[in-house]
Design brief:
Belongs to the peptidase M3 family. By secondary structure, the chain is α+β, with helices and mostly antiparallel strands. It has 31 helices and 17 strands. The radius of gyration is 28 Å and the shape is globular.
Length: 824
């Protein structure tokens, strides 16, 4: 086991001001004096009574150049020679691209040795170890695969990216061989049929065995030779088409063209609607028309700002109409998926995918979406009336009907009117203060906190990356490591906010040792002793793209909107799921759970930011040091709620579209069948208000070709809404919000009620990872919450038989969750 002494950052306000004074002297013409600069950063001085760890967290993220670093330069850090070899992500195997490739080859050798043990398992004792062996193989390979995926996304070093691509490719090929290894499958099924063996398994190990069996069968392993070969060909076709789709999909965001009248072009010039558009206009001699070429981003701006409805209509059609190539590739993917599902005996791809999810069937998803839409429809009907009233004051020709090309323009009108009363919240929130506040919340709920630690030179991929240790405040035990890559930079991949698992927690002291390699070939990785067990420490990477700013050589904290604060809480919620979901098995550790359950922990964390009194505690004005008032945050949240219903409507629509595109309709093989599905859904009353659709379909457009979630979610896009409904109910059940319950995070006894609820949530949801039926986890938590509150519960769960139905899952459970609606 490897023990590491924490290497803490050295920060204090004197050092920070000294650092900035040095910067001032080196910047010619910088207009601010040292005293003014000192006053401007009053918010970042150590505050009276502030915990040293909280202060260190704030300084680590808000003033990265003032903390102690190793003086690395971005771009060559992967190849820098250092006295101490830590390796990327703290893994000594990942010291260089060449070493990373060697580690991948070693992992295959280890897997082959473990496969041989499975194939030689004849006695009951050996058969009882098959699940453990499979889980060890899975972890051994995923440590390489997951790391390669992260490197492909985060690195700016071409050599590393290229090597990660190569490693990912040959590891994927090897894993596909294992997924179709009939011998392993036969051994596993044989062990599962033996009651004497299964009787030795605990609840989690049985769940792991079941998931391995289902994964094998999803790979068509139970098929005869001809069907299996067809399955492999279809799967290869889908992978190749998916890469092609992502290639052609980029064209969706390239240049678009629309034919405008000369008068319309002149109108845009007078409104100063963008030089790029004016410069790229090509006059067609004699026809009185102008061919306008514009980038996608400028087209979106025109939809929001152009006062001419004809221009907006032409731009909308140009953005979403000329995409036949992308539509053709997408439809081929959907058709191949449908064929693959039928090969393995399922009616549709959605039926195949949903089998092991909470929803179980497409019908159950439809029930949830229909029930939820009935709950939410009054909200967007009210907003529709506001838009129709606003439309009366415009030059829009048909004032009785809302059109998609007018949507952003009308919403912008209402936004501008409402947001005039909202304070400028970006002056109050920073990354460091947000992370310190989240750490305080974790200490209140669970008794754990974040501690900033300086990374070794070859441990991270850029100087702006910060390392956090998650520790138990009572025992001091390390729970896990989080690498935070949060600040936008020019060459950084734009993948949005994301949570990456580099390494899961699992039990390792009972691993099978492969001679010459150690247990996993990764000697030196962090482990912790947990009672009689030893576990490997989970390692997580969080990725965001918050825009920092530099003035006169002085690095300032990236200003965050309240949306950004919610985003950071969301991603940290995923990370804490990984920290707490420390099962004995990699395959069900942390966020390795059904996709329609995995967003629950992250979405629930967003709700804390929406408590004005709590959000106020995270804020300080960067000049005055004063917090934003809770009433100012309430005003912002009230305005945002007025428009949230249309987002819900859109999410419902996209969820239904995802489900329908993966239904048996995908066997059409007639071009543009997917557009017909899109058109029919626009006429569905569940997405309209009163007796008509909110926004009718625009003929000949294919908005869905930009819906890239179709690739990754494939019938599961409903998961966002599903987990939002669950999270809202759980939050209001567990964390009632009033002046008597919101803790001040300084030892206030009011924290006790949230701590009790936090432990209930951790015990019933987080600690299980994917090792227990989510319906059972949810029901147990609600029952525990009712008992903790002396039998009281929110009205949405006030009938005991509802919990019985919920625990069984199925259509009744999906209807119950839909009936909860979304929090206002």
């Amino acid at each position: 086991m490897m023990h590491v002494q924490s290497k803490r950052y050295v920060v204090n306000s004197t050092n920070i001001l000294r650092f900035h004074r040095k910067k001032l002297k080196s910047v010619s013409g910088f207009g601010k004096s040292y005293s003014v600069l000192r006053d401007e950063y009053v918010a970042y001085r150590k505050e009276p009574g502030e915990n040293p760890d909280d202060y260190e967290l704030r300084m680590t993220f808000d003033f990265p150049e003032s903390t102690k670093t190793s003086g690395r330069k971005a771009g060559n850090i992967f190849h820098k020679k250092t006295a101490k070899k830590t390796g990327l992500f703290g893994d000594p195997r990942f010291g260089s691209p060449k070493e990373f490739e060697a580690a991948a080859k070693t992992s295959i050798k280890i897997s082959e040795a473990l496969v041989n043990r499975i194939m030689q398992a004849d006695s009951n004792d050996d058969k009882a170890k098959i699940v453990k062996l499979l889980d060890q193989i899975s972890d051994n390979l995923c440590q390489i695969m997951d790391s390669a995926e992260v490197i492909r996304q985060i690195s700016e070093d071409y050599v590393w990216i290229q090597k990660a691509e190569e490693v990912y490719a040959f590891m994927l090929e090897y894993m596909n061989v294992l997924n179709t290894h009939y011998g392993i499958y036969t051994k596993l099924v044989g062990a599962m049929k033996d009651h004497a063996i299964m009787g030795k398994f605990g609840e989690i190990e049985q769940q792991v065995a079941k998931s391995f069996k289902e994964d094998f069968e999803k790979s068509g392993i139970q098929l005869d030779k001809a069907a299996h070969e067809k399955f492999i060909l279809l799967n290869n076709d889908i992978n190749e088409l998916s890469r092609e789709y992502m290639r052609v999909q980029q064209n969706e965001y390239g240049n678009k063209t629309a034919e405008l009248e000369l008068g319309e072009a002149e109108e845009l010039r007078q409104q100063k609607m963008g030089r790029d558009l004016v410069f790229e206009m090509n006059r067609n001699a004699g026809n009185g028309k102008v061919k306008a070429t514009f980038r996608d981003s400028f087209g979106q701006r025109l939809l929001q700002e152009s006062t001419n409805e004809n221009i907006r209509k032409k731009v909308y059609t140009a953005l979403y109409g000329n995409n036949e190539e992308t539509a053709a590739v997408l439809e081929k993917i959907l058709e191949k998926r449908a064929e693959l599902a039928q090969v393995v005996g399922f009616e549709s791809y959605s039926t195949l995918v949903l089998k092991d999810k909470m929803a179980k069937t497409p019908r159950n998803v439809e029930t949830f979406l229909t029930t939820l839409s009935k709950q939410e429809q009054p909200k967007w009907s009210a907003l529709t009336k506001q838009l129709l009233n606003a439309q009366e004051k415009t030059k829009i020709e048909d004032k009785s009907t809302l059109q998609l090309w007018n949507r952003e323009y009308l919403l912008g009108m209402l936004n501008d009117q409402n947001y005039l009363i909202v304070p400028r919240l970006k002056d109050y929130f920073s990354v460091g203060r947000t992370i310190a506040g989240f750490s305080n919340l974790m200490e209140t709920l669970y008794g754990v906190k974040f501690v900033a630690e300086e990374a070794e030179p070859d441990e991270v991929w850029h100087d702006s990356v910060r390392k956090l240790r998650v520790v138990d405040t009572t025992s001091g035990k390390l729970l896990g490591i989080i690498y935070c890559d949060l600040i936008h930079r020019r060459n950084k991949a734009v993948v949005g906010a994301a949570h990456f698992t580099v390494r899961c927690s699992r039990r390792v002291d009972d691993d099978f040792v492969v001679e010459g390699t150690g247990r996993t070939g990764s000697k030196g990785q962090l482990t912790v002793v947990d009672g009689e067990k030893t576990r490997q420490v989970p390692v997580i990477v969080l990725l965001c793209n918050f825009s920092g700013r530099a003035e006169g050589g002085v690095v300032k904290s990236p200003p965050l909107s309240l949306y950004d604060v919610e985003t950071l809480f969301h991603e940290l919620g995923h990370a804490m799921h990984s920290m707490f979901g420390q099962t004995d098995f990699h395959n069900v550790s942390g966020t390795r759970c059904p996709i329609d359950f995995v967003e629950l922990p992250s979405v629930l964390m967003e709700h804390f930011v929406r408590i004005p009194e709590f959000a106020s505690k995270l804020s300080r004005h960067y000049k005055t040091g004063l917090p934003v008032s809770p009433s100012g945050i309430s005003t912002f949240l009230d305005v945002r709620r007025r428009f949230a219903s249309y987002d819900t409507n859109t999410q419902l629509f996209m969820s239904a579209l995802d489900l329908h595109l993966h239904s048996s309709q995908a066997t059409s093989h007639q071009f543009d069948w997917s557009r017909n599905v899109l058109e029919r859904l626009h006429g569905n009353p569940h997405f309209g208000s009163a007796d008509h659709a909110v926004f009718p379909y625009v003929p000949h457009t294919r908005w869905h070709t930009r819906f890239t979630h179709l690739l990754g979610y494939a019938s599961c896009y409903y998961s966002y809404l599903f987990d939002r409904a669950i999270a809202g109910t759980l939050f209001h059940s567990l964390f009632p919000v009033n002046s008597e319950t919101i803790p001040s995070f300084n030892g206030d006894p009011k924290s006790d009620s949230w701590r009790i609820s936090g432990e209930l949530y951790r015990k019933n949801i987080l600690q299980w990872g994917g090792g227990r039926d989510p319906w059972l986890c949810l029901t147990n938590l609600l029952r525990s919450s009712m008992a903790n509150h002396n039998g009281s519960s929110p009205s949405v769960i006030d009938k005991s038989h509802s919990l019985d139905q919920l625990s069984r899952g199925g259509v009744e459970a999906m209807e119950i969750v839909g009936s909860w609606g979304l929090p206002s």
